[in-house]
Design a protein that fits this description.
With about 120 residues, the chain is mainly β. The protein has helices spanning about 5, 115-125, and strands at about 10-15, 25-30, 35-40, 50-55, 60-65, 80-85, 90, 100-105. It is built from two helices and eight strands.
Length: about 120
């Protein structure tokens, strides 16, 4: 699977792992082929914990940009996309679903502004 296909027609898509623990894990795929894993806390003090950029290879392997942020452990990150069923993703042959949470028109906090998206549409890159 290609990250561009998982990104949909806009800027990208955000997939969220079904609720399992005190963290909300998200995987974002962008129209230019980049991927990003983000972790947030749940609850009243919900906040961003860390984010890591990745590349999705043809065999489904995610290659994360090194070095990892201080709070990120390699064991916490999905390593390989193993199945796609409609708008649901499965990583590492686990039974936990990653469901489509949002189609993104823009994602300013990660650098996908109107200007960048216009340039992407004009150049096709």
């Amino acid at each position: 699977m290609d990250a561009k296909q998982l990104a949909g027609r806009g800027c990208g898509r955000r997939y969220e792992k079904e609720y399992l623990n005190k963290y909300r894990d998200c995987m974002l795929f962008y129209c230019d082929g980049k991927a990003r894993f983000e972790r947030y806390c749940y609850g009243e003090g919900a906040c961003f914990v860390f984010g890591v950029w990745a590349a999705l290879e043809a065999d489904g392997t995610l290659r994360y940009r090194q070095p990892l942020p201080p709070l990120a452990a390699a064991a916490d990150l999905p390593q390989r996309l193993t199945a796609v069923e409609g708008d649901v993703l499965y990583f590492d042959n686990a039974r936990w679903k990653w469901e489509l949470a949002a189609d993104l028109a823009l994602d300013k906090k990660n650098g996908y502004t109107r200007l960048r998206m216009l340039a992407h549409r004009l150049t096709g890159r």
